[in-house]
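User: What would this chain look like folded?
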Amino acid sequence: MGSQLWHGTEIVALDLEGSGAQDRHTEAILEVAVVPLTHGQPDLGHAFTSLVNPGRPIPQRPWISPGLTDAVLAEAPALEQIAPRLAELVDGRWVLGHNINVDWRLLSRHLPALRPAGLLDTLLLARAMSFPDRSLSALVDNLRLRETMRAAAGGSQPHRAYWDSVATAYLLPKLIYRLWPNRPPTFDTLRLGAGVALPTEPADQPGLFD
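Assistant: Here's the prediction, encoded as structure tokens.
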């Protein structure tokens, strides 16, 4: 991609809600959201979000949002039904997330045919700065995005897939501006700072901020 500026690259923000890592290889996906970025800004008009029927009862654990109940999920489509739409959004694009490895490992376990161009992680960019709390919700507050999130995702809430994916999509340009205040970076520069190797790939060279 050479000298192409970062916002000229096709990027989509992704977030999942799952049944929990304690389920290991049987962890179920309960909700998914994907938000494309157009010229570096969230394109909410083309966002996609869906509950997912896990095909089995899910215990109500503390980290599972109250809205994700068995009764609600039973009415949702199975992951296989929305897989074509996810492929349309993800294949060939860079997938962005906050601690993206967690979401991508779960999604690729269920849908191994997805083929993104690569992975980007806003958490890596946040670690290069002096934020005391790098959680997504704390960064939204620190970067004064709370009102933006009320307007963009007021019907959702933190720790739901749509809210988290929208927040990540807004967070990326804010972090980039803080790290490169004088001029926008090329995509290759961003990739060195925020890129994460796909699980099937060998570890990449050390990042820009290592």
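Strands lie at 11-18, 29-38, 41-42, 48-51, 94-97, 118-121, 195-196. If you want, I can go into more detail on any region.
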